[in-house]
Each structure stands twice: as structure tokens, then as C-alpha cells.
Amino acid sequence: MPNPILYNKKFDELNEEEKKLLEINKKSIADFVEQSSSISDVNYATRNAHAKTYAVARGTFWIDPAMPEFLKPFFDREKFDLFIRLSNAQLKITNSKKDIPAYGFAVQIRDENNNLLSNYPLVNFPLFPVNSVSTFLKLFTAINLFYIKKWSSLFSLIAQMIKIIPSVFTVSFIRNAIKLFSKRNDFILSFDYHSVGAYRLGDYMMKIKLSPQSVNKNIDKKQNMKKALKNYLQKNDYTADVLIQLCYNLKDQPINKLNVEWKNSPFIKIGEVKMGKGSLLDARDCSNELLSFNPFESKTIFHPVGKIQKLRDQAYKISVQTRRKINKLLHGKEVK
């Protein structure tokens, strides 16, 4: 196996047009969050992505002692504490019994002194439909404006959606879309979860996969997902393997081409994530609702890599700043 490619900040650099579009997008994010309580009909400001919280729980990241020696310096303890948030990707919170199967498994890793080490917002679909930063920013801005202005911005949204159609017609994307459709009724914890984009591991670059060891996909299909998840974690332990792939060459493991899977990079098990019975926290508690999983709040050696990933830094910051400003009066109260 060749040596991994080392991180270079050039993977993250935005051009001037992209920077200008990002500023426009940040304004649309702030506007969305400011109006999000009325958009979702709740009494607090929501996130502008993955707004619906299914559960918040404590967990543990157990390190695999059999991992390759060159990776062990990054994981110098037997275990790490976790905060975990399970969510739905929709921007608007609804009370529907059936949600689209676009789930999030956000993980926050802390040390023994409760200091933040890294955030990893994982999702149950391994690919991203857009490679162009400009196209994505225009689309994301159009989506925010549609929720704010409704039908008056519909044609703008449709125009931006048409532009992404070519990028979803890859073998990887179509195969994974079919797979997701076939699993649309499966239990949320039975899915694999992925980092989608790349992350630093020191000077290396990696993708992350969380793969459950043994979860029945047919659990509580008649209940809504939030209740099913609560029932499961009150009665069962959850364990998932933590696997990574390293970047060895940009042809097989592209950093800025997110609509294809990495190939010719074997998965390496680095540990296990566990949630025990009784690990659930009160998701309605304001301190839990205000948790931020911005991956750029991590230590630098664990930061995201890539142009699309770079957008998360400013997007997360403006979202959480606006959300916390609005919700500060709710501190210490329940978020219903």
C-alpha cells in the first residue's frame, strides 16, 4: 500500500466568486434561522439543516488496540466521551408520522476534562449531489429563500435544482440512491453513517464510516421514528464499528468530487461507538438543543478538508450564532 497523501490547504481554497456567493448564502441562513420558529411552528429558533431532533444521548468511543501503529498517536486513550444527536435532514420540523429517510448521526468527542476534541456530523447517505461550490451555494440560498418567501421564489429554486441534475447521474450516486430507497422504512440505527466529505487525521486525510454491529431494521415500524428510537435506547445497547479510509491518490480518492465513492482504499477499524441503556438525555432541554456540531470547532488536526466542506465553517457559525441569540431567553427552560 502506498503512503497516504498529505493534507494541503489548497484543497480548501475558495475563489473570489465563491466567497461572494458565500456571503449571500450566510445572509439567507441568518434570515431563515430568524424566522425558523414560525416556519416550523415551534417556540424556539431551529437549525437551518437537520432541524428535527430525534434524540440526544451520551456515548463512548472505545479505541481498537489492534489498529495500525501509525494511527495510534491520534487516539492515545482507551476511550473518549461522546455527545450524540440523531436527527432528520429536513429544514422544517413537522409532526408527520413518516419522515423522509434522510438521517443524521452527529458525534461530539470530548476528553477526560470535557474539552472538545472534534465534531463529526455523519449522515446515512455517503455522497453529496453537488461538486461545484457556486452551484451548491446558489441552490442552498434558493432553498432558504423558498422557506422564507414561499411561492414567490419557487421558480428560482426550480432553476437551481435543474443545474444539479447532471452531477447525480453517476454510477455511485444512482446505486446508493436505489439502496436508500430500498431501506426507506428501516429503523434509524440500522443504517451506516458516513462523513460524506474528507477530514484531516493529522497530516493524513480520511473518510469515516459508522457501521452498526447488530440492529434489527424492522423495529417499531408502526411508530414514528422519534418514539421508536426512544423505546429502543431505553431497552437496548447500541454498538457500531468506527471505520476510516485514507486518501492515497486523488484519482481513486478525490477530495473535491463528492458524488462518487472512494475506491482502492481499504476500511480500517479504529474503534467502536457505544450507547448504553439509559444513555438518553432530554432533547427538549435548551442546553442540549443548543449543542453545536460544527466540525470546524474541532482541533485543527481533525478539521474537514475540501471546498464544499470549507463552506460548513461559516454556515455553521452564522446558524448557531443566530440561533443562540434568539434562544438565549430559553436557557434553562424546556424546548417543546
Account of the 3D structure:
- The chain has helices at 16-40, 133-149, 154-164, 171-182, 225-235, 286-289, 307-327, and strands at residues 52-63, 79-88, 103-110, 116-123, 193-194, 198-201, 204-212, 238-246, 268-275, 280-281, 304-305.
- The chain is of the alpha+beta class.
- The protein has a single domain (9-330), classed as Catalase HpII,  Chain A, domain 1 (Beta Barrel).
- Strand 6 and strand 7 (204-212) form a beta hairpin.
- The longest helix has 25 residues, at 16-40.
- The termini are far apart.
- Residues 332-336 have low confidence and may be disordered.
Tags for this entry?
336 residues, alpha+beta, Catalase HpII,  Chain A, domain 1, 11-stranded antiparallel β-sheet, 7 helices, globular, disordered C terminus, Catalase_sf
SSE order and pairing:
Blueprint (H helix, E strand, L loop, with lengths): L15 H25 L11 E12 L15 E10 L14 E8 L5 E8 L9 H17 L4 H11 L6 H12 L10 E2 L3 E4 L2 E9 L12 H11 L2 E9 L21 E8 L4 E2 L4 H4 L14 E2 L1 H21 L9
Antiparallel strand pairs: 1-2, 1-9, 1-10, 2-3, 3-4, 5-7, 6-7, 6-11, 7-8, 8-9
Helix pairs in contact: 1-2, 1-7, 2-3
